[in-house]
Structures are given as structure tokens and as C-alpha cells.
């Protein structure tokens, strides 16, 4: 091998590019969180920015606290789904690197 350090630097550069691309894909992905059997839906990006809240009209007759709880539950469902997506994408990216499970990448 001509220069092992140069080869290592090229690998690091390729990983950094793949990492950046994966971050952009996650950020652009839209996720939907739900609660109340789909009566409340929240659509958000992979950056956890809420795009749309959809509330079934039948819930508008419910007490305020019930609606608030369903909205919070739908938001939390969306956040969990974003975390799962991020974990799956990063696991695919870092598969052969020996990074310990649960290690959070910086984003």
C-alpha cells in the first residue's frame, strides 16, 4: 500500500459525505404521529418540525383536556418515529464501524 494514512483519510472523507447525506435525508423525511386511533395526526419533518396537525371533527365536542392529551400523544408518537428512523438510518451507515449501540451521532 502506498500511503495508509492517505487511504484512511479518503475513507474518513467518504464517511463524512455519507453521514451528511444521511442527515439531509432524515431532515427531509416526513413522519406522521397519531393518537386516539388516528383521530389526531401530526405530520413533522425528521428535524421534528411540525408541518400539520389534523384533528377529527368529532373530537371538537370533547373536553379541552382530552384534546390536549391526544395532541401531546400524537406529537410524542411522531418524535418516537423520528428517533426510530434516525436510529435505523445511522445503523445502516455505521454498520461496519464498530460503534457501540446507543451511541448518538451529533445531530
Short structural summary:
The protein is an alpha+beta fold. It is built from two helices and three strands, in the order αβββα.
Notes on the structure:
Keywords: Coiled coil, Cytoplasm, DNA-binding. It is found in: Cytoplasm, Nucleoid. Residues 5-32 form a coiled coil. By secondary structure, this protein is an alpha+beta fold. The protein has a domain at 23-94: Ybab, Chain: A, CATH 3.30.1310. It has helices at residues 4-28, 64-94, and strands at 30-35, 40-45, 50-55. The chain has a three-stranded antiparallel β-sheet. Helix 1 (4-28) runs antiparallel to helix 2. It is rod-shaped. The relative contact order is 0.15.
Keywords, please?
alpha+beta; 107 residues; Ybab, Chain: A; three-stranded antiparallel β-sheet
Amino acid at each position: 500500500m502506498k500511503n495508509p494514512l492517505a487511504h484512511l483519510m479518503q475513507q474518513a472523507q467518504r464517511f463524512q459525505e455519507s453521514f451528511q447525506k444521511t442527515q439531509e435525508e432524515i431532515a427531509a423525511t416526513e413522519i406522521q404521529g397519531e393518537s386516539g386511533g388516528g383521530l389526531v395526526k401530526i405530520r413533522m419533518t425528521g428535524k421534528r418540525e411540525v408541518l400539520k396537525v389534523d384533528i377529527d371533527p368529532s373530537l371538537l365536542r370533547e373536553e379541552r383536556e382530552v384534546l390536549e392529551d391526544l395532541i401531546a400523544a400524537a406529537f410524542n408518537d411522531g418524535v418516537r418515529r423520528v428517533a426510530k428512523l434516525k436510529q435505523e438510518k445511522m445503523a445502516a451507515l455505521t454498520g461496519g464501524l464498530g460503534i457501540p449501540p446507543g451511541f448518538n451521532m451529533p445531530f
